[in-house]
């Protein structure tokens, strides 16, 4: 079990759902606060930001390697520096956003992208940290965050087993005791066929920690399926409306979808239950509607039971149907009326 603020996370508890704001504030603090309110209304446990500036992410150069020319990318045609200028969350917004999270009863935290962001977030007393897939190989950053002693959530998109192992070792050696890994596909949006949820139980066993899903697929199907495989954390990007645009809006959930995710992930968790056979307590009342052996025609004492006067029907108050062959051909001790359950006493 891991605890963020007052919320406990683990296989014994409901899924921890994180709404990722990212750049969906569209450079409006008012919209950012509205996203917090909408996320809280949906029932999520946490809202996450990303803490960086264009200058902490890259340098302002318009050379080829700093240009996104992948035609499949949502951000094709942008230079990295200009993209991050558009997408970043102003640092002075963090406190009012986190304050609104506290007012609405959800956890507010962030993903730092360099060491200066960690120092800044520490000044705001965030309860935990998230490491992005693209930064999980930045071992200096991992150690910096681990040294805070706070819980860490680390996405593992693109990572090899060796890279994950190196990152986990750095985090634990750096002082992190509470660690959650997220399986992730670093494409935007991701496809279900490229999500590979079967990694969840494998990663949990391999690295002896909780595992969740940072999900970039459209809809909520993959996220719900992850619960059945043991995911304890689900992270999804969140916006007020995809039609409003924004750097991440195309693969973000809208409020009705996020609310459905919260509801259905809880149902999926509840449905896991435990290994159990036989009628549950809730099923006891249904036992009477199983089939059993009943007299279906009036029979006089001394007559034989036949396939015409005894049948397997509902309800289930007579002998189990497996005894039909033993009953057929036996004599009746007494007069029996139609609708009487067959019992050993009347044979």
TrEMBL record:
The keyword Transferase applies. GO terms for molecular function: transferase activity. InterPro entries: AFP_Neu5c_C_sf, Aldolase_TIM, PseI-like, PseI/NeuA/B-like_N, Pseudaminic_synth_PseI, SAF, SAF_AFP_Neu5Ac, SAF_PseI/NeuA/NeuB. It comes from the Bacteria. Residues 292-347 form the AFP-like domain. Its EC number is 2.5.1.97. It is an enzyme of class 2 (transferase). This is Pseudaminic acid synthase. The lineage of its organism: Bacteria, Bacillati, Bacillota, Negativicutes, Selenomonadales.
